[in-house]
Amino acid sequence: MSLSSILPGDAIESAIKACQAPDSFCPKKFFQMCGLSKKSPQDIKKVFAILDNDGSGYIEEEELKFFLQRFCTGARVLTDKETRGFMTLADDDSDGRIGADEFQAMVSS
């Protein structure tokens, strides 16, 4: 399954373009622009499963760096500052990784 089967391709493209500059990525804005924040909990869990590249049940920092590339192969890698900010925003239990429930809560808020 691909992200474009869940989210409109033009919305993904617009969201990627809006954060092309280093340190311009804002997770909540990105989720709104690509349409993820309006999706059902089931669709958000499907997106999480795609983003969880190693299938561990968590998105770790190394996977998070390549977050934008999961949406579009030509997208840039997140900077260390963006990656840490994203992790801090989503990692409610401070275990250094984002679980499905944490991701759901961040996207839906």
TrEMBL record:
Keyword Heme set for record: no
GO molecular function: calcium ion binding
Family of this protein: Belongs to the parvalbumin family.
Residues annotated to bind Ca(2+) 1: 52, 54, 56, 58, 63
GO CC term (a single one): cytoplasm
Domain of life where this protein originates: Eukaryota
Residues of the EF-hand domain: 39-74
Annotated Ca(2+) 2 binding sites: 91, 93, 95, 102
Keyword annotations from UniProtKB, A to Z: Calcium, Metal-binding, Muscle protein, Repeat
Short name of any one Pfam family annotated for the protein: EF-hand_7
Gene3D superfamilies to which the protein is assigned, alphabetical: EF-hand
Protein name: Parvalbumin
